[in-house]
């Protein structure tokens, strides 16, 4: 087996029903119930006009500036999949542009994440197919390899295994491990409901912020009234 230049099968992926249940949950709520310990990095931002990212990860690891294996991923990924590309964070050459975007839309994918650059940004920004990337350049990619498909990757310390749940909105990206999806969803749903109640109290003028002074006293702050 040629480590660094190989295509592996994906053993499992999060079910469409589970993906659908996360679509209305803010990524921030999901992050909170995961102890705020996981994130895809502040550089990876939405490049599209609108819409959340949610779907099972189809992972690609490629040499910076090279998209040969990304092209192969377009042929192998399934509808609803989110192609997640670790291109080393390099912004010298774009990994995708308008033509590859059209292919992904045609195939019904859930979106793409690129730890690298895109081009044809105006075309990407004008539509709702979820695209997250670290930057933009007009310089096109090479197509020489090497690269790997369906291997574990890491984005700014956030490990993504093939088939894990990948989420993204205006606040950024988050991966929910395959085995934790149900437990995280239950906790995030409770968190969202609690925040909705808190917002209602704020709007009604009944919000209780007594915890602030209680925390300051516990931590030994001087000068409290």
Automatic annotation (TrEMBL):
Keywords: Magnesium, Metal-binding, Methyltransferase, Transferase. SUPFAM superfamilies: RraA-like (SSF89562). CDD domains: RraA_family. GO terms for molecular function: metal ion binding; methyltransferase activity. Substrate binds at residues 97-100, 119. The keyword Metal-binding applies. Mg(2+) binds at residue 120. It comes from the Bacteria. It holds the Pfam family RraA-like. Its cofactor is Mg(2+); a divalent metal cation. Gene3D superfamilies: Ribonuclease E inhibitor RraA/RraA-like. GO terms for biological process: methylation. PANTHER family: 4-HYDROXY-4-METHYL-2-OXOGLUTARATE ALDOLASE 3-RELATED (PTHR33254:SF4). This is Putative 4-hydroxy-4-methyl-2-oxoglutarate aldolase. It comes from Neoroseomonas lacus.
């Amino acid at each position: 087996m040629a480590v660094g230049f190989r295509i592996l099968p994906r053993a499992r992926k999060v079910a469409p029903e589970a993906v659908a249940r996360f679509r209305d949950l803010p990524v921030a709520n999901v992050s909170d119930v995961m102890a705020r310990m996981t994130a895809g990095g502040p550089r990876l931002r939405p490049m599209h006009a609108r819409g959340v990212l949610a779907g099972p990860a189809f992972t690609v690891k490629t040499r910076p500036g090279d998209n040969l294996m990304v092209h192969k991923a377009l042929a192998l990924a399934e509808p609803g999949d989110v192609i997640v590309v670790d291109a080393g964070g390099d912004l010298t050459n774009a990994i995708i542009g308008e033509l590859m975007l059209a292919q992904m839309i045609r195939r019904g994918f859930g979106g793409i994440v690129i730890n690298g650059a895109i081009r044809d940004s105006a075309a990407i920004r004008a539509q709702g197919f979820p695209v997250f990337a670290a930057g933009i350049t007009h310089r096109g990619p090479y197509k020489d390899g090497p690269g790997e498909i369906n291997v574990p990757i890491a984005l700014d310390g956030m490990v993504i295994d093939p088939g894990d749940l990948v989420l993204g909105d205006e606040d950024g990206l988050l991966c929910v491990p395959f085995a934790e999806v149900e437990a995280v969803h239950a906790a995030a749903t409770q968190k969202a409901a609690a925040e909705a109640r808190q917002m209602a109290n704020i709007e009604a003028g009944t919000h209780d912020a007594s915890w602030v002074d209680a925390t300051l006293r516990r931590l030994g702050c001087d000068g409290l009234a």
